[in-house]
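Regression test case RT-17, inverse folding.

Input:
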């Protein structure tokens, strides 16, 4: 209803209980709703996506304000990329942003 009333896209994460193979399962879902006017009527398109397999980091992460290493539960300082790769499905690829190219390689 918020999408219809607000005329913009609404997104929310939630839980949905479904029956699969005679067993109730709770799925993590992402619900997106967008307003649509059709033949003078305000409607909404609703998409429900199962995001149960998506690993999500949550909570507070102690991070060094200088080198950006993460302090792990095991009591070690670990590189940011290594920590995120170990605790999610993310894989990093490296590049260099335009500001750093200017700072590092283009002399004034």
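Golden output:
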């Amino acid at each position: 209803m918020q999408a219809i009333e607000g005329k913009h896209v609404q997104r929310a994460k939630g839980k949905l209980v479904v029956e699969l193979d005679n067993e109730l399962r709770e799925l993590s879902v992402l619900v997106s709703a967008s307003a649509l006017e059709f033949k003078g009527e305000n409607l909404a398109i609703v998409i429900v996506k199962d995001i149960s397999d998506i690993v999500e980091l949550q909570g507070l992460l102690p991070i060094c304000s200088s080198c950006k290493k993460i302090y792990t539960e095991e009591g070690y300082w670990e590189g940011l990329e290594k920590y995120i790769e170990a605790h999610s499905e993310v894989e990093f690829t490296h590049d260099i942003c335009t500001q750093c190219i200017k700072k590092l390689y283009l002399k004034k």
